[in-house]
Amino acid sequence: MSENITMPAEEEIYYLSEFYKVFGDSTRIKVLYLLVNRELCVNDIANELAMTPSSISHQLRVLKQHRLVKFRRDGKTVYYSLADEHVETILNQGLEHIEE
Fold it and tell me: Which H or E run includes 20?
């Protein structure tokens, strides 16, 4: 560890470990990549990934709980997008790391 870095509080470490667990599912990562440049509804995501809308809804619930995606309603349709630019940064840095 660098001299300037202090150990986060135990509670922060717990939440950080829970946050990283979200990235332990390949379907959730695929959903995030689909949302990098556009917003999509559950059916669009399900079609892109050849999965059922209910399985995509489950994954989106997890992503929402961890504030990785946001949503907006347009009539009966709900559109999802990345919560902020940090999500794309996390994906890019992870990919960069494994490609080294």
Answer: helix 10-21
The span from the CA of 76 to the CA of 24, in Å, is 31
Task: Find out if CATH 1.10.10.10 is the number for domain 10-98.
Answer: yes
Could you give the CA distance from residue 28 to residue 6 in angstroms, rounded to a whole number? 31
What is the chain's length? Answer: 100
Give the tens place of pLDDT for each residue, 53-87.
999 999 999 999 999 999 999 999 999 999 999 99
How distant, in Å, are the alpha carbons of 40, 59, 60, 75 from that of 68?
14, 11, 9, 23
